Amino acid sequence: MYADDRIPRIIDNLYSGVLDPTAWRNAMLGIADLVSGAAVMLLCVNPSTATILRDEFFRGDADEYKKYRQHWIGRDIRIAPSLSAQVGQPIFESKLMPVQCWTGSEIFNDYLAPNDSPWFLGFLLHKAPDKVVNFSINSSRLRGPFDEKDGERLRPIVGHLRRAIEIKDRLEMVKFRADAIGKSLDSVSFGVMILDSQGHALEVSARARQILRNGSEMRLSADGSLSIRAPAGPAFRQWIKDGRPPEANPDGLLRVPRPLGQALSLMLTRLPEQTTSWMNDGPPCWLLLIFDPDLHINLATEMIARDLGISPRESEVAALLADGYDLVEIARQLHLSVNTVRNHLKAIFAKTGIRSQSLLLKRVTSGPAQHTLKNESRRFI
Question: Which of 13, 113, 158, 299 could serve as a FRET partner for 359 with CA atoms 20 to 30 Å apart?
Answer without folding.
Answer: 299
